[in-house]
Design a protein that fits this description.
By secondary structure, this protein is of the alpha+beta class. It has helices at about 10-15, 20-35, 40-45, 50-55, 65-75, 80-95, 140-160, 175-180, 185-190, 205, 220-225, 250-260; strands at about 105, 110-115, 120-125, 165-170, 190-195, 245-250. Helix content is about 40%, strand content about 10%.
Amino acid sequence: MTGKGCAALKGPALARRLEPWVALQLGFAARCAAIGGLSPAEAITQYTAIYKRMGFGPNARGPLHPDWLALCAPLNEAADIEAQLAILMPELDARIVGYRHYSDRLFGCFSFDAPNEAGAVKLHFIPDHSDAPTGPLHKSHRGARRAELAAMFAFIRRHHGERAKSVRGLSWLYHTGAYCALFPPAFSESARPDADAGAKPQGMRYWGQFLTHRGHLRHEVATAFRDGFDTLILERLAETFPYRPLLASAPIDVFYDAFDSPAPAQT
């Protein structure tokens, strides 16, 4: 996942590298607060991935973590983004978690949510940041990624075979050929913009596109995004991102066939 001999970046080292990325989100939240009549803390909670990356929960819906609530008053009183960073970065140093923190079942760079009531399995791509010379989607790693998917779908078939009916994925990565090449064509080619254009951008399906695999800000993409802040429309935030998240779906048998997942033995 992280390249041979390259350990995953964690803790303060990762937090410091992510500071420009955090600042980008704070600027976005400030604009959302201005046009939506929200407090700064409300906007940061609702319209950034900061809450999640600080380990307070998989999303900012429902009751908020008390430690986050303790930060809200100082964030509201902060004079500017620099002051907000001064409040958040020490906490981020201590609390930052990787994408993998919220996953119970990992298969290399991939994870999944168990089938929902409709039988849909939700797919996640959750690589670590590292100083590896190439990212996890580089063509040299394609065989490893497909092996991870094969192991994951074999597991799903063994343990969720009767309930699992389809696979869903929601990410900006479906805009990239390197990611789509990992999956059966029927799945990749189904990718379409998520119907919920007004969704609140709290996850990496929005904010991951501004980071390199080393955790550095992609400055050119971030600058172009920042230049559009003055024209934000709160009800159409998804459209302001360079790569709007796409929703892909296919019957799970497409994956079983592609990865040759054997059916569980009959008892």
